[in-house]
Amino acid sequence: MKTPAHLNALRAFEVTARLGSFTAPADGSTVTPDAIGQDTFIICADST
Fold first, then answer.
1. pLDDT of the residue at 6
2. What is the pLDDT of residues 19-48, one digit of tens each?
3. Would you state the pLDDT for residue 40?
4. Measuring CA to CA, which residue among 20, 2, 19, 12 is closest to residue 39?
5. For residues 2 and 17, what is the distance between their CA atoms, to the nearest angstrom?
6. What angle separates helix 5-19 from helix 33-46, to the nearest 10 degrees?
7. Nearest residue to 8 via CA among 35, 47, 33
8. Are 32 and 6 in contact (CB under 8 A)?
9. What is the pLDDT of residue 2?
10. 14 with 25: CB under 8 angstroms?
11. Residue 5 pLDDT > 70, yes or no?
12. Ramachandran class of 29: left when φ > 0, alpha when ψ lies in -120 to 50, beta otherwise
């Protein structure tokens, strides 16, 4: 089963906040730092 996009964005936001950078979460996954940043932006934009 594929994970919904908004859950991936939430996961990216959590890991980014915990590790303090966009590069660190991308190092341990198959996504780029730009994708992590975009997912984080989606979460922040939805919260306003």
1. 78
2. 888 888 788 778 888 988 888 888 777 666
3. 81
4. 12
5. 24
6. 100
7. 35
8. no
9. 62
10. no
11. no
12. beta
The Cβ of residue 16 has, within 10 Å, a number of other Cβ atoms equal to 21
Q: Find where tokens 């590069």 sit.
A: 23
Q: Is 16 left (phi over 0), alpha (psi -120 to 50) or beta?
A: alpha
What is residue 4's predicted lDDT score, i.e. its pLDDT? 63
Q: What residue ranges in the chain does DSSP mark as E strands?
A: none
Q: Nearest to residue 22, comparing CAs of 47, 1, 43?
A: 43
State how far Cα 27 lies from the chain centre.
12
CA distance 48 to 39: 15
Q: How far apart are CA 12 and CA 9, in angstroms?
A: 5
Q: Does the pLDDT at position 1 exceed 60? A: no
